[in-house]
């Protein structure tokens, strides 16, 4: 559309980080309340585009919510309505732009952040901001392991080129219910083995290396080892990865803001007991200064000031009453009672794809993943 | 499967993407008369929630949606000022529950639904007969003056007017069902059944 400047998801994110953009989301209220773009330094407001169809004068109440001194990024589902509204706002003297391809593009935007780097080890967190999905690259001596890759596997291949490593291992911490895994595909593309816990792969025809048979997986030619700690709870074969006793890649077991939800297999109570066991026995001896790097987050307050979603285990223990609740019965009840909340959108279909039982085309895959992530038990004791 | 639903206008927005279906619907609705029903055909999935939200926002009635062969058929009714302000005047009323009970007990009552065909087609009381309020004067002559009638619409306004017309025409056993179909808890069926 003429007179409208469109911005990409990446540009928008850059402006959000710099704190110099205001988001006007013109989807309907239900969609906005369900799922929206959020940033620590970014204010957003929801005014459905159809509110802009009526003639309005300068004094109109709707316009009074919009800043004149800041760029307004207009956002909708696919970019059509945002073009329309942005053009209208520009004609009224606002500086506005339109997010190209809307939330559709935002849902496929990945932002890599280096969590840690020394001469032996580099850990990169790849943040899919729209979904709150986190995947990781663990890099050493030009070799790398990718953990929980999303379906857009080019992201990891480009990352490997940029950081000059070859992908030698591809791992899924568990069978995901909220997003389509890129694990098997990425492994095939780069000729690396794909690992998954046998518990998770039960009854499927997936080709995988059984994780539980690898106590350690070597990444690079120096002594960085990844130790699999089976952490059932979220799903029966959920696995965490411990690097050097300093970094715990916790999958969907422990989040910065809480614990994973154990209900998606329909056995909330049994799995809640597994989760209890994980929290109080298997992870008990890990040091407080171990940095937890989770597979998801559901609130931007879980992100620290450097844009990394991570927290010291000690701090999580301190902040999460549920992790200190050593009474098994009340722990189980508390976790199981938190599971009545909405399930991730389309989770049954996504699970079927991840089990290799269902094939969908690229468009359907995008459509299935649209929407928020709902994998965490929302959300005990977040401390901003 | 319902395919023929009588409306006053049909707006084709197939293959148009957001925001055009809502933009065009708004334009067409401005030219329509109060009480008239518009069918909007879209293929954009986003139009489903958007047309509904828009209608609620501006006060039109979103009657319902039928999905047929990948086409979304939305039915919207322009609500008239008179209707939204009108007070219910006809004194003989019957509550939704009373009607539901009487029908369940097999009492001999003719349910006359005076909403528009599209509203009727998307859900009505079993065995109800559909005569839109605008056609009532012309069609009521064929009905038996001595039977019992329960007249229903969405909120009790149109049926109130219908009851008054029927009394003028010599009917005696006529009840206005309140609040009407918007609150109906009993069974409903889809389809058309006119007089």
Q: How much is the radius of gyration of chain B in Å? A: 17 Å
Instruction: Give the distance, in angstroms, between the N- and C-terminal Cα atoms of chain B.
Output: 21 Å
Q: What's the total number of strands of chain B?
A: 9
Helix content of chain B: 25-40%
Query: Would you state the CATH class of the largest domain in chain A?
Result: Alpha Beta
Strand content of chain A: 15-25%
Please tell me what the overall shape of chain B is.
elongated
Q: What is the mean pLDDT of chain B?
A: 90
Largest sheet of chain B: 5 strands, parallel
What is the structural class of chain A?
alpha/beta
Distance between the termini of chain A: 41 Å
Written as H for each helix and E for each strand, in order along the chain, the element string of chain B is: EHEHEEHEHEHEHEHE
Low-confidence stretches of chain A: 376-384
Total number of β-strand segments of chain A? 18
CATH superfamily (homologous) name of the largest domain in chain A: Ribonuclease Z/Hydroxyacylglutathione hydrolase-like
- CATH fold-type name of the largest domain in chain A: Metallo-beta-lactamase, Chain A
How many domains comprise the coordinates of chain A?
2
Q: Please work out how many helical segments of chain A DSSP would assign.
A: 13
Helix content of chain A: 25-40%
Topology:
The complex is a heterodimer of chains A (384) and B (195).
Chain A: E1 5-7, H1 9-18, E2 21-25, H2 29-34, E3 44-46, E4 71-75, H3 80-91, E5 96-99, H4 102-106, E6 111-117, E7 122-128, E8 133-140, E9 143-147, H5 154-162, E10 166-171, H6 183-190, E11 194-196, H7 198-201, E12 209-210, E13 216-218, E14 225-230, E15 239-243, E16 247-251, H8 268-282, E17 291-294, E18 311-312, H9 313-319, H10 321-324, H11 328-337, H12 347-354, H13 362-369
Parallel strand pairs in A: 1-5, 2-3, 2-4, 4-5, 9-10, 10-11, 11-12, 16-17
Antiparallel strand pairs in A: 6-7, 7-8, 8-9, 13-14, 14-15, 15-16, 17-18
Helix pairs in contact in A: 8-11
Chain B: E1 9-13, H1 20-31, E2 37-42, H2 47-58, E3 61-68, E4 71-77, H3 81-85, E5 93-95, H4 96-104, E6 110-113, H5 117-121, E7 129-130, H6 136-139, E8 149-152, H7 157-168, E9 174-178
Parallel strand pairs in B: 1-2, 5-9, 6-7, 6-8, 8-9
Antiparallel strand pairs in B: 2-4, 3-4
